[in-house]
Known about the structure:
This protein is of the alpha+beta class. The chain has helices at 4-12, 72-92, 100-116; strands spanning 14-18, 23-27, 42-47, 59-68, 125-134, 137-143. The two termini are 30 Å apart.
Amino acid sequence: PISSQDQMIALSALLSAGDADKSTLTLQGNKGGPEEEQVNQDRAMIYSPYMIAGSQTQAQLLGVFDGHGEKGEVTSEHAVMNVPRLLHKKLSSMSSLDDETAVSRALIETFVEVDKADPTDGKGGSTATLVLQLGPKLYVANAGDSRSFIAVLIDGE
């Protein structure tokens, strides 16, 4: 069992951002050492709407990046800054966003390109979880051991 003091410490480390329609929530991990020296290596982003050049398709892009290692916060920040831009470039050049194979390929290529350009020279890493909504379709992409779940509220349940 977790003591009430440990629960309060854990809850105080929760960081949240968002508004009435969307939010992110992260728990700052502890890598050891003084609390004031801790660095939150997690990053998250929400683009809603996610505007794709030349398309009228309703789109949203959500991502969570869990940094690891000595420079994990650098790698996760690199990912959160570059994934949306690179994916946008690929999606905007497609003749149709209805091509599920091409959209999946764009997601994979984006992950590979961002990984190859990691600025930490192997001193950092990050998992990645991305949810891309294109009209009525959802695409979920994962790298590393992070996973996504999707929940909906229908008629209050």
